[in-house]
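User: Before I run my own analysis I want an independent prediction to cross-check against. Here's the chain; please return only the structure tokens and, at the end, one sentence I can use as a sanity check.
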Amino acid sequence: MEQSKHRKVIIIGAGPAGLSAAIYAARADLQPLVISGMSLYGQVSLTTTIENYPGFPNGINGPDLGSLFEEQARKFGSEIVFDVVQSLDLCAKPFKVVLSDVEYTADAIILAMGAEARKLNVPGENEYVGRGISYCATCDGWFFKDKNIHVVGGGDSAIEEALFLTRFARSVTVIHRRDALRAGAILENRARNHPKVKFIWDTVVKEIRGNGSVHELLVESVKTGAQEIIPTDGIFIFIGHDPNIGIIAGQLKMTAQGTVAVDDRLQTSIPGVFAAGDITDAHFRQVVTSAGMGAAAAISAVSYLETLD
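Assistant: Structure tokens:
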């Protein structure tokens, strides 16, 4: 392994939060190092069209937006490396970041590893992401105008998203593995009383099928084991998100939702370590909010580093 290299600030993650942080840190002349992980641009890279990011009234392809973020970050002096953090030591200063074949130390760290939507892990799921399968109603609901769609899940997020989708879809059918929702009473009453919302109880999706795009689901009763095929124009999966916190396990204070706890300046429980984006956001999970958090974290990191001079 190469001899350890030092940076004033290292940003872990190259999605909207990480690259926005890089832009702001670079403009402060910190020459930040961005470690992308194996998913350059984060969940944005999985989104075919983004129509709710300001400045793009005609929408923009997700990877293209990520590429613009990257271009802007590099323009101001950020270095972006496509590598995976093998270990991260936040217990001593300077902080230590170990990559595949090089070790870095840093005076400040911005964590922006994002989160991943939980998957059903059934046949067809990977094949049809972006072609009838979505994990974000706010992002993709518009594409399902006057369609008959299905939502998988029974918690607050699933029912909130199902109700949101009624703005566009002809019908929204909620598939839930239990015989009662886990969502709060107010949300449940709204869903049960909505003319567009239907329910399929005690049922799980076993396979997602299509021909170019999703057109049917193989479902199974958890009580009888009986299977049937139901037609659909799309499926939205809302069974939770998992923040990518493996490399920081046990080192930082977390919230009850499993996200990294931060103060109003996006500083974690360790001074000099900041967090932004989905890793600390259990609610909004939008490109625009992640980008804003990344910018704020970088501004806070700049202020923190000034106290060390």
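Sanity check: The CA atoms of residues 266 and 274 lie 6 Å apart.
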